[in-house]
Amino acid sequence: MSSRRSRSRQSGSSRITEEQISDLVSKLQDLLPEARLQSNARVPSARVLQETCNYIRSLHREVDDLSERLSELLATSDMSSAQEAIIRSLLM
Amino acid sequence: MASSSPTGKRKREEEEEEQSPSSSKWRARRTEETYSSKLIQALRLVRAAAAAGTTTTTSSSTRSRDVRDAADRALAAAARGRSRWSRAILARRRTTLLRARLHHPVPIPMAGSSSSNQRHQQNHEEVEKAKVLGRLVPGCRKLPFPALLAEVSDYIAALEMQVRAMTALAQALSTASSSPS
């Protein structure tokens, strides 16, 4: 076990380096909404991962709410005027 | 190299898209328009299916789940097969549950610190959180850490676009229904 770890410190041929990991984590941090994490501060990667999970979950919830809203609107809306509004919103 | 003609610019944009699944494409207006069109087509089908069946027995939760599925499928289609999560969504939806179980890939123990190929030092907490993340993104349970993070960035950008497009659509529909001209 220890020999494997010492090899990883020396080897340049390992595909996944710690630098790559922290680089990816910082990119992930940039994706998160800025209100939650200061983008300049160095945040521990576990925290970034947690915030990412929370963010994805909240996005899923938003999509679910929107799906519910859309399904209600679909049932009640008049299709022709809806189509006009849709085309108009796409052209904007 | 810089072409002022519209076809030249479009070609360059397409070439850029071909190179890598850059998450900035999810912020492009053209992507959102494409997605909105796909979504509308899918929603028309959902609406037609609901109308064809007995509307009294279709619960609102089933309808909203159909809408959610249509929205996810359209999102995965908009990704043009360049990300694992999008391929997972399309594969999941098309097959029945039984076939999905048969085609379930044999778990390859690559993720986590137990693998001998992982050279980086990950503490236990990070590994656990990465696992949770892998479960949240479709088709990414067994991915090694770097690939997982790449998928996550693309997935988040796509989800944000999905929210924007669906919000705009909901607003357009609610304006249309509230003010019939």
From TrEMBL, chain A:
InterPro entries: bHLH_dom, HLH_DNA-bd_sf, PRE. The keyword Ubl conjugation does not apply. Belongs to the bHLH protein family. One of its GO terms (molecular function) is protein dimerization activity. Keywords: Growth regulation, Transcription, Transcription regulation. GO terms for biological process: regulation of DNA-templated transcription; regulation of growth. It comes from the Eukaryota. Residues 5-59 form the BHLH domain. This is BHLH domain-containing protein. The keyword Transcription applies. Pfam families: bHLH_ILI.
From TrEMBL, chain B:
Keywords: Nucleus, Transcription, Transcription regulation. InterPro entries: bHLH_AtIBH1-like (IPR044549), IBH1-like (IPR044660), IBH1_N (IPR059002). Residues 1-33 are annotated as: Disordered. This is IBH1-like N-terminal domain-containing protein. Coiled coil: none annotated. Residues 33-95 form the IBH1-like N-terminal domain. Its main location: nucleus. It holds the Pfam family IBH1_N. It comes from the Eukaryota. PANTHER family: TRANSCRIPTION FACTOR BHLH148 (PTHR33124:SF12), TRANSCRIPTION FACTOR IBH1-LIKE 1 (PTHR33124). The keyword GTP-binding does not apply. The keyword Oxidoreductase does not apply. One of its GO terms (biological process) is regulation of DNA-templated transcription. CDD domains: bHLH_AtIBH1_like (cd11444). GO terms for cellular component: nucleus. The lineage of its organism: Eukaryota, Viridiplantae, Streptophyta, Embryophyta, Tracheophyta. It is found in: Nucleus.
